[in-house]
Design goal:
The protein contains four helices and six strands. It is of the alpha+beta class. It has one domain. The strands form three sheets. A two-stranded antiparallel sheet has the order 1-6. The chain has a two-stranded antiparallel ribbon with strand order 2-3. A hairpin with a 2-residue loop joins strand 2 and strand 3. The longest helix has 28 residues. It is flat. The two termini are about 15 Å apart. The model has no long low-confidence stretch (mean pLDDT about 95).
Length: about 180
Amino acid sequence: MNQITMAEALAVRAAINRLMNQLISERMNNSSTIIEKGETAEYPSRSVDVITEELEVVAADYRKLDLLMAISNTTQTIPWNGTDITIMEAIELAKQIRSDIGQLAHLGARKKLERQSSRGSGDGAVTLFNVALYDPEAYQTQARKKEREVTKLSSLIEHANHSAMISFDASKYME
């Protein structure tokens, strides 16, 4: 059986998904036609049955490839913070870090003390301030550090995807 890298598998899975969507659309387009009474329907070159059979084969390939990719992602590991973690865990960790970066950057962009508004008028007016209960600069620094961290993690995942091999015949979907 042919071997492809995980990086190739990602591209092949996307191509198979596009093909499935095209076949679904083609099947719907070829499923009926509008004619006037007494006319004979013109049949498309590919019948709904033929398209359905092809779609079933392509969908089975998609499921098989998806399973092989999941197995690879749960067995292949990369070194991270002094230990080995699976690619699946690394992908989830990268998502979590990216999510955290957004919030840290937002907190880091705030001012330590910011005038909000005034309440009341005249001599009884009170000025309100929004006071950060943390050090915004520290959070900005932390966001930058995590950005470098997730870039490194993504690079390790990418490298692993180019070296991990999967047994899958992709000849129908790529040359």
